[in-house]
Amino acid sequence: MTPTTTRMHAEIAQQPEALRDTFDALLPQVPEIAALARQTRQVLFIARGSSDNAGVYGSYLVQAHAGRLASLASPSIATTYRKDVDLAGVLAVAISQSGRTEEIVETLRWAAANGARTVGLTNGAGSPLTEVADVALVTRAGNEVAVPATKTYSTQLAALAVLALGLGADVDAGELQLVPDEIERMLGQANGDLEEIVERLAGVGGAVVSGRGLAYSSALELALKLKEACYLHAMGLSYADLLHGPIAVVDDKTPAILLAADSGPTLDGTVELARRVTAAGAAAYGIGGGDRLGQACTLSLEGPRLPEWLAPIGLIVPGQLLTERLARRLGINPDAPRGLGKVTQTT
User: For residue 272, how many other CB atoms are within 10 A of its CB?
Assistant: First the structure.
């Protein structure tokens, strides 16, 4: 029987407290990060799954606001091909919810052996990842029981925002304090067309989830959540990649879910994409983007009132609520999706 209350829903609700605790714990480490920054030029993010989606946020944030080249690692170069790469001048940032995924720990060791300075970002205090890293950023999400990552993902984004400060990002650090309060506000009110979107998604087999720039990370994460917890064939694509051909799959049976901050350089394109989708006879469901995206979409969910650099932390929350509610509507227990465990080991 599908539960009427779930651990996933409870853990979504715990995010404001988890974010406050994480910022309080990590902001004092900005000088440590800055010391590593002075020894490096570019950033390499090492992760899998939800943590890899967090790394996408880190990559956009570091490049757009700290002026450093950033990229995502291919861990199999270290663990399967076992090839050395010159990583002098690189800050390698490994992200793992548990800190115990062997592939990620091994890849961070490999990075250090190849000349990188290292950061381990994890919710697992005392985990192997923290022991390998030069600097450990330990989030304060608390124990997460449900298999789909919720509060561990949002606190990873929070930690990456702190990392960006240490790397010299041209942002206002005081705006970090807006995030927990804004998510608390969002959780405390009914969110737009949630139930109607759930009913419509319950009748389709797939969806395209899209965002651009900083919002792309949480579009990827929402697509992953819909696959994990609802068994929906959800494709996470950037706005730009979607227009290069895959938009052909969007039709009356394959809606688009579009994520955007309320401001920033990618909003105009996301609004135009929504208009293009609906003009083709398909449904577009918006998350965030203010009134402009909401009016261009078939149905919409309110996003966070946050500056663009922090918006992805809040944009995922309506997506998490949508995933949890849709899973229950489909008769699935989102706490324990089939075939998945809390820690995935890869080699």
Answer: 13
